[in-house]
From TrEMBL:
Family listed: Belongs to the OpgD/OpgG family.
Species whose genome carries this gene: Marinomonas colpomeniae
Compartment(s) where it occurs, according to its Swiss-Prot or TrEMBL record: Periplasm
SUPFAM superfamilies: E set domains (SSF81296), Galactose mutarotase-like (SSF74650)
Pathway involvement of the protein, from the record: Glycan metabolism; osmoregulated periplasmic glucan (OPG) biosynthesis
UniProt biased composition (Polar residues): 1-23
Keyword field contains Transmembrane: no
Residue runs in coiled coils: none
Highest taxon listed in the record's lineage: Bacteria
Annotated protein name in UniProt: Glucan biosynthesis protein G
InterPro entries hit by this protein: Gal_mutarotase_sf_dom, GH-type_carb-bd, Glucan_biosyn_MdoG/MdoD, Glucan_biosyn_MdoG_C, Ig-like_fold, Ig_E-set
Keywords for this protein: Periplasm
Length: 509
């Protein structure tokens, strides 16, 4: 099973809520506590040691906190005057999440100052709660369910929440002017496998205190799971756009065949051009992401529109040393969605750029049937060929960019819209693909390179598109009775590519 997006939508404050820097909650470093020496190597050694024995059960919140309903949990709020570094020259501040409801796993959080780590302590004043009983329970637990970082990304005089770590190994971020949408994870294990998915967890965090002049912050985490452990370092740069440099060092406890590196999790319900809603909906589109984009090791740009299928769909895009991939929210106008509450036009895209050689493998895309926009039904990640082996270590480094669109090849043509229907005055399926940024191109110099896995391409036509300064491709095909057909379309000028490669899995309705 793929988890629902409640992890990404149950934060006790919306990203659009700006908070003033508040009083400082000090770490526990009284005279008798001089802290513990710390570096990222500390986390690596801890992860390696843990991998040599079976996973120990994660400490849970008291049952009374777990049994809370969502509305009660929403009433538990971290007191802003307790924010770590909230009233200091440091531009960043840290706020914390209380355990309860779905967030039953307890995590430890340390702050790091001058190369030494100090555990954050919890006091009865840390959270405002619906009643004294809940407040007492949270105080007695003394641990947290996650954290969020604040920084003035929209206005210099307000600290905005811009990144959240909460639930398993999930985290999500926003850039200037954005609202929360898709999520990232530390690691994915056995997604869409018959034996069920395993959810690795960040069990401990170390947050380095930035200097007052710094515009970046470093967070270290320890990942633990039945099958694998890991040490993560996040170098976080908030702003326009927000960027996260990730270094993960992994230690499998067992041989892992199905493991996902740099996983992204999102939601796609429908759009009226390729995947219309099964029930009437006044909104033309409902999604956090609309397409998977891949920049292959050979430099080919691929665009694959997302589906909300009737049955589970898994697609694999084989590659060697990939240059990037991500889930993209390309449509940026309110009219694209007509949703006054969700504001899907302000949801971020997320782009993964490998910073070391990832070798052979595949970008895998999992599309899960869904009838509720509160569910995350889209997952993508890099799957190394051959998986990961027990008693070995693996390092994956990558840069995540939470931008409005793919932050590469910005001046090159892009696929900006796809639609499907039936050929006018005919009976065969037809797809329409729009490419922009081709103002000066002569369509007579272009050719359509189109392939279909099952069936036959009947007609391909290119016309100028004056409204998007590009071209439109009409492609008519006959699936010849097939239930599934893979389409591949690229415009060429001579022997070279003139556009990204458009991929689509056509499913018989």
């Amino acid at each position: 099973m793929i988890s629902t997006s409640i992890h990404a939508k149950s934060s006790n404050s919306d990203v659009s809520t700006n908070t003033q820097p508040a009083e400082n909650t000090k770490p526990a470093k009284e005279s008798q506590n001089i802290g513990t020496p710390f570096s990222h190597q500390t986390v690596i050694e801890l992860a390696k040691k843990l991998s040599q024995s079976p996973m120990q059960p994660i400490e849970k919140a008291p049952q009374a906190l777990i049994d809370m309903d969502y509305s009660t949990y929403r009433q538990i709020n971290f007191q802003q005057n307790q924010a770590v570094w909230g009233n200091t020259p440091t531009k960043f501040s840290v706020q914390l999440f209380a355990p309860g409801f779905l967030f039953k796993d307890l995590v430890s959080i340390d702050v790091v100052e001058n190369g030494r780590s100090f555990p954050l302590t919890m006091s009865p004043d840390s959270f405002s709660t619906p009643n004294d009983e809940i407040g007492k329970l949270i105080s007695e637990v003394g641990k947290y369910a996650g954290l969020r970082l604040h920084y003035p990304i929209n206005r210099e005089d307000y600290n905005d929440e811009f990144i959240v770590f909460q639930g398993a190994s999930y985290f999500r971020a926003v850039s200037k002017g954005q609202t929360y949408g898709l999520s990232a994870r530390g690691l994915a294990v056995d997604v869409a496998q018959p034996k069920g998915e395993e959810f690795p967890m960040f069990t401990k965090f170390w947050i380095e205190r930035p200097a007052s002049s710094q515009d970046a912050i470093v967070v270290h985490t320890l990942l633990d799971s039945k099958s694998i452990t890991g040490a993560y370092r996040f170098g976080i740069y908030p702003g326009k756009p927000t960027r996260v440099e990730v270094k993960s060092t992994l230690f499998p406890r067992v041989d892992l065949q199905h493991v996902g590196i740099a996983p992204l999790t999102s939601m796609f319900m429908h759009n009226n051009s390729l995947d219309a809603s099964d029930i009437p909906d006044y909104r033309p589109a409902v999604h956090d992401s609309e397409g998977l984009q891949i920049l292959t090791g050979k430099g080919e740009m691929l665009w694959r529109p997302l589906n909300n299928p009737k049955n589970l769909q898994v697609s694999a895009f084989s590659d060697q040393s990939p240059k990037g991939f991500g889930l993209i929210q390309r449509s940026r106008a309110f009219d694209d969605y007509e949703d006054l509450e969700a504001n899907y036009q302000t949801r971020p895209s997320a782009w993964i750029k490998p910073m070391n050689d990832w070798g052979d493998g595949q970008v895998e895309l999992v599309e899960i049937p869904s009838d509720a926009e509160s569910n995350d039904n889209i997952v993508t990640y890099w799957q190394p060929k051959g998986g990961l082996k027990k008693d070995s270590s693996y390092t994956f480094q990558y840069l995540m960019t939470w931008s409005n669109d793919t932050p590469v090849s910005l001046d090159s043509p892009r696929t900006i819209r796809s639609a499907k229907g039936t050929k006018l005055f005919g009976q065969h399926p037809e797809v329409v693909i729009d490419f922009n940024k081709m103002t000066d191109v002569n369509v007579d110099d272009l050719s359509v390179d189109a392939n279909i896995s099952e069936g036959e391409i009947l007609e391909a036509l290119i016309v100028k598109h004056p409204y998007n300064k590009g071209v439109r491709v009409y492609l008519t095909f006959d699936p010849k009775g097939a239930n599934v057909s893979e389409l591949r379309v690229q415009l060429k000028k001579g022997d070279g590519a003139a556009t990204p490669t458009w991929l689509y899995r056509w499913l018989e309705e």
